[in-house]
Amino acid sequence: MTVKSPLTETAISAYRQYFEKSPEFLVRAPGRVNLIGEHTDYNNGFVLPCAISAHTIIAIGRNNRDVVDIVACDLEDAREAFPTKIPVTRSASNPWSDYFRGVFSEFQSEKLPTGGVNVVVASSIPHGAGLSSSAALEVGFAAALAETFSDQNIAHSRLARIAQRAENDFVGLQCGIMDQLASACGIENHALLIDCMTNAFERKRFPDNVSLMIVHSGVKHTHVGGEYNQRRKQCEQACAILEVDSLRQASMCDIENSKLSGDALKRARHVVSENQRTLEAADALERGEHKRLGELMNASHVSMRDDFEITTPEIDELVSILQAEIGQEGGARMTGGGFGGCVVAILPNAISTRVRSAVIRDYFKGQHGIILEGKPEAGLSVTQYSSPL
Q1: What domains appear along the chain, each with residue ranges and CATH number?
Q2: pTM of the full predicted structure?
Q3: Quick check: 309 pLDDT over 60?
């Protein structure tokens, strides 16, 4: 029996309504927040994310109709279907379904078993917030397909790579592995120091006396085909000038003594310095030095603002409010790909109420805003569903 929650009940109820039976499996895939290490993942660098409480639920069951039939509760029960017996193509009318289509296409490419399924998706991850709602959907659907059709135990790390390829090759966003790996392999009360060159990761325990605070700026972003891919191209241009395969291989000395200039110089400087900050932040987290972690997060925001140029005026204002209220007890920075989305802060549990009040007063002006608080959560999980008697 699956543990009841409002989100699972929403998915089960919708599944029964639209498909007139109960699902076979329920999959929970969390969103993620990145403590530090932005735009380093596709540069073979280091990142320090953790899974969060906001998550996606996917209810799935076989339908014997040779179609994938999807209902999206978060899009007013929008419905989309595509055939399973031919190569999958993108949808012109419902681009949200491309995340499902991309994962299914990857299963076809890897000759993993598939078939017709009914799917309902429900999520508490804010869309366009930089908390990886798309990665959670991709990872969750990959796990749902694997559980439904495969007789082998597919490792969560492999599911993450399948989900990443779906985003890269099908959807068209050239992201690194961080989002999918954090959602699939997250560990309760831990952040993951991920080496994006090898996909290996180390657990870094989160201090008991410290909390995360994630605040949505209210500025939604979309990266596909836009500024995100442009930043990746600029990093590749910097690599060509430096004659390295990735910015992971470059040092600050290399950059300072190179022919880099303009945007290429700034992008490379951010990535190389961010890698060093991320390694130092992981060490600080492991030692329980949240003040040092806060200093590094603050410095990361400056680098994203000035060198990588991915913040917005709203994001900068929100970070300033958080940093001023937290003081030297922690830190705050933009998180995610940029151009909107969320800010993440680390702060002592004892001052979280005061900081939250300051954000509501000074940024949201007393109005409703999205603020998530808590500790790192566990990653992907799959449950066989059995109807209540």
Answers
A1: 6-32+45-203+379-384 (3.30.230.10)
A2: 0.90
A3: yes
